[in-house]
Fold each of these.
Amino acid sequence: MEIYVVRPGDTVDQIAREEGADVNSIISINQIEYPYRLAVGQALLLQRIQPKASVTPLAGFDGRQPDVSETGPAGRRGIFRSGYAYPFISSQVLEETLPFLSEMAVFSYGFTAEGKLIPPSADDEWMIRQAGRFAAMATLTLTPLGADGRFNNSLVSALVRQKDVQRRLVAALAGVMQEKGYSAVNIDFEYVLREDRDGFTSFVAYAAEVLNMLGYGVSVALAPKYSDAQQGLLYEGMDYGGLGAAANWVVLMTYEWGYTYGPPMAVAPINQVKRVVEYALTKIRADKICLGVPNYGYDWPLPYERGFTAARTMGNVEAVELAVFYGVPILFDETAQSPYFRYWHYGIQHEVWFEDVRSWREKFRLVETYGLRGIAVWQIMRLFRAGWVLLDSLFSQKL
C-alpha cells in the first residue's frame, strides 16, 4: 500500500500506470465517482500490483518490515477496532464496515431520572444480528440524553447520587443485553458536574462489578483532558485515573476541536490528540485506552463570527468531491496533520476541514507508538473505505 498525493495534471489512468496500481482498485478504494476527476492535493490510497523500488510500502510505520516473530502470524499485532453507529445506518454501509470492526457500538440508549432504560427510537436488533455475522461484538451505548437530544447533567446527578436508581438502571441494562445479545456497555456521559465526579466514578465501578460478573464488558468514554487541573464542564467531572481503573477499557473522545459553532480548524489536530494521549497514559494503562478517531469534517462559511456562524457536517469523501466540484486544491496542515481547503459559493467563501488517509495514518501512529488498545471511530454512518483499508494494511488483525 502507498499514499499518493495528486499533482497538477494527474489522472487516475496516469497514476495507475506510473505507480504500478490497478485503475479499478484506485477508483474503488478511494470511492472516486465517474468521470473520475481528482483534486490537486487529494490523498489516494494505492494498492500496488507491481513493485516500485523508490517507494517504501506501508508495512511498518518506521519503514521497516515488521518481525513476524514479535507481531504474530499476520505480520503485525492486532488492535481493537470500535465504531459508533445509529440504528438508522444504511445496511450497505454497515455491512461493508463490519468486517473491519471488533466492536459496533449502538448509539444510544438513554434513561430517566428514576432509572428506567430508554431504547433508541429505531430498531437496533438487526444491527446486532449483522455484527454477529461478522464476528464483531455489539455494544450498548448508554447516554444521559434529554428529550431535546442534548446531554443532560441533571440526569447524571439524579443517577450518581441515588443508589436505588443505579441498581434499577444496571438491572435494566443486564436484562436488555441478555435479551438482545449485547456483549458490552459503553457509558458515554458528557458534561458531568464537578461535584458529581466521584459519584460518576463510583457508578462506573458498580456497573462494571455487576455486569462483569454476568459476562459483559464495560467501557467509558472520556472527554479529552490535558491535565488534572483542566477547567470546564467537559473536564472537571472526569477522573481519568478512577474511571480507567473502574472500567474494562476507555475511549478517549479525541475530536471536536473543530466543531459546529467553533472557528474553522481541524476536527482532531494531531498535536492536541497527542497531548491527551500522553496525559491519559499517566493515569491509565495503555492496553486499556482506545483512541477516538473522527470520520467526518466541517464546512464553515466565512468570515467566522462567534455565536452566529454554524458549520455544516460532512463526510470525508463528500469533502473531496466538493473540492473537485469547485476546482480548488486540497492543502495539508503539517502541525495538525489534517487536510483543508477553501472555496467560493454565491459570493461567500467557505473553509473545509476533514479527515483523509494521511490524517488517519498519523492517529494510527499514536496507537502503534504508545501501544494502545486500539481505536474507536465516531461515527461509521458514512463509508470511508480507504481509511478502513489503510487500517487493515497496518494492523492486519482485529481483536
Amino acid sequence: MKVARVLLFFVIVLAIYFLVNAYVLYRGVHCFPHGTAARTIVFWTGLFLVLSFIVGRVLERFWLSHVSDVFVWIGSFWLGAMLYLFLAVVLIDLVRLVHAVVPFLPDSWFERPDRTARMAFWIVTGLVGVLLVAGHLNARTPRVRHLTMQISKSVPGVDSVRIAMTSDIHLGTLVGRKRLERIAEIISEARPDLVLFPGDIVDEDLAPVIKENLGETLRSITAPMGVFGITGNHEYIGGVEEAVAYLEEHGIRMLRDTCIILRGGITLCGREDRSSMQFGGLRRKGLGELLKDVDRTRPVIMMDHQPFDLDSVAKAGVDVQLSGHTHHGQLWPLNYITKVVYEQSWGYLRKSGTQFYVSSGAGSWGPPVRLGNRPEIVVLTLHFTNQ
C-alpha cells in the first residue's frame, strides 16, 4: 500500500511536469520556421533541459559524481525557467485570444508574424534568464529575522530563552557546504540558548550530504539547551530512518512524536511529519496522545513541519508552535497558492493563547531560486512572565 501511494504521487507529479513542458516546448519551437536550424536547436536544447532534472536525480541514486551534479544543477534551474516560461506563454496566448475577438494589437505585428514570434521568444527568454540570476543570488543570502514573544507562564530561574530556528535547509547537491557554513555562522553569531530545525533538514537523497560530509558542519552548531530537529516530508521521501540516523550521529537530537523537559520545566515537543503515513506507512500521534503527560502550567513549545490544523493546536494549550514547509511559495506567484492552502503561509500568527511562526525556510527545493520572498533564519526570544 505504501509503495502504491508513493508511485501514484510520482506519476501525478511527472504527468504534470511533462504536460507543462510539452506546452512550453511546442510554443517555443513554433516561434521558428519549419526546417530551420534554429527550430532544430530549440527543440533538442529544450528536450535536454526537460530531461536534465530527472536524469540528474536518477544518477544521484546510482552514480553520484560531478556528472550527476551538472545534470541536477541544469535541471533545477530549468524548473524555475519552466514556471516563468509557462506563465509567459499562457499570457501571450491569452492576449492572442482576446485580440482574435477584439483586435487591439498593432497591424505591423502581423505583417511579418515569423519575426514577431522570434522577437517574443528572445525577449521572454532573456527576461526569464534575468529572473533566474536575481532569484539565485537572493536564495543564497538568508536574512536574520528577529522576533519576540511573551508567554504568561513563569519558569524558575529563567526569564527568557533565545532560540535560533532554521527550517527547510534541504541539504544536498544544491545546498552544500558553503551555504550550510553560512547558516551555521549566523546561528553562532546569534548566541542562542536553543537551536531548532523544524523539518526538511536534508533533501530527498542523503548521498550528496554524506559525500560532502555536511554532518561535520552540522556538528559545529551547538547551544547550551541543545540542538533539536524533527522530520519533514523530504526526510520521508528520501528515506526517513537513514536521514534521522545521520542527523543524530552529527549532533541533532530528533524528536519524533516526543516531548522532553528542558531547563526550568519548559516542554519541547516534536511531531512526526504528517506525510509519515503517505511515505513511511507510520501513523503519527494525535495531539491529545502526544501532550497527555505534559505540564501545561509551564511553557510548551512545539515543532510541526507542516502548519495545518492550527485551531487544534491552540485548543490543546500549546504556547508556541514553529513550522516551515511552505517556503512562502519560493517562486512568485506561487505564494498566492500557499496563502490559500495554509492559514498562515509565512510569519507570525496568534490564535487564542497560542503563538505560531511559519518560516519561509533557509534553503530552497527544486530551483535554487527565490523570487518574491527571502530565505531566513529566525532568532526568537521568548520572555516568561506570570502577568
